[in-house]
From TrEMBL:
Species for this entry: Streptomyces kunmingensis
Keyword tags: Membrane, Signal, Transmembrane, Transmembrane helix
Domain DUF4352: start-end pairs: 159-269
Keyword Membrane recorded: yes
Region (Disordered), start-end ranges: 115-152
Membrane spanning stretches: 21-39, 45-65, 77-98
Stated name of the protein: DUF4352 domain-containing protein
Organismal lineage: Bacteria, Bacillati, Actinomycetota, Actinomycetes, Kitasatosporales
Amino acid sequence: MSQTQQQPQFPPFQPQPPQQVARNGLGTAALILGIIGALSGIVPFLFWLAGILGVIALILGLTGRGRAKRGEATNKGVALTGVILALVSLGLAVFGAVTTFKAVDDAVDEINKSVSDAQPKDTKPSGDAKDAGKSDTGADDEKPDPDKALEAGDSVIYDDDLTVTVSNAVSYNPSEYAAGHTAGNHAYKVTVTVTNDSKEKFDSTLLTADARAGKDGVDAEQVFDEKVGTGFDGTILPGKKATVVYAFDAPADAKNLTVEVTPSFEYNATQWDLKL
């Protein structure tokens, strides 16, 4: 009786599925952008950068958390931290925008206030010009127009009670060391007086004076001659005044000299039409 030898039985070979690689990139990117956005939001005027990074980080973080829930990623905590930082970035962006816009509005208001304060509020003609503006009853018939050139001896008063007065033009002979005088032209002295009736000291070094001569308005070059033309120096305290002499070179046939004085960049310029 023969015996049949049995062959060993092996289970069929089944290939193992490839191991899935964790997709942690979105969570990591959300964390990085959230950190940068939050740091940017600390500086108010970088609110726009914090807002952009916050939005991107929020989207990436939520997507990264979704992957982690589906088992496609292993950094659920990192993605959650990115979402939290994204929300912080957005909050700081809103705060920075409000702060920045308020600061800009305040700055514009201050500039407008400074410009308004620099507008001439009135002019006070002196001498004959003052009497000419009054009727027989002593009341002013009409105030001088600050948009028109004033006459010699007239004063302009700004809203802060700073007063500027320009005298008539007086002919004089420059010395041989004078600068700005051309042979054949005539030189004229003009006295500028600043009275500070405001509540703050006035920096007189910022005052500038220019002139044009004749009917064609030719630029009259300023003459510097010893103490003539040196301009103001230092500050003028409240309740005090200061006077300096400027000189301008005009063509010999010029009949008038238009002097323009600007107390500083905070004040409007005012012109005086002086007869020669």
